[in-house]
Description:
This protein has 3 helices and 5 strands. By secondary structure, it is of the alpha/beta class.
Amino acid sequence: METRSFSPFFQTERGTLFCADCLAWLRTLPDESVDLIVADPPYNLGTAAWDTFASPEEYVAWSRAWITEAYRILKPTGTLYVFGLRERKVEICIRSRERKVEICIRSRRFLPM
């Protein structure tokens, strides 16, 4: 676990929002300390610099890294919500069965105007 600290981006009595590199930030949190993670990771569609990976293999490796950290910090009764495209979440579904963590995947549908 890393020891550097991150400043909150937004904070209320109901929670705190951080804006940081997810891997660096997740690595600062203690094991089994989080009840809920809501994630909307890049889809690797190449539509913006932050949504572009060198290869599909690099995207999967990055996904595995942040998912591994998410599982590490989730409490045994914790939940991970991941927004995104179903086709991009295969690794998450496989790992959720191994750890028996509840994962809710919500597929976005784009309706014609």
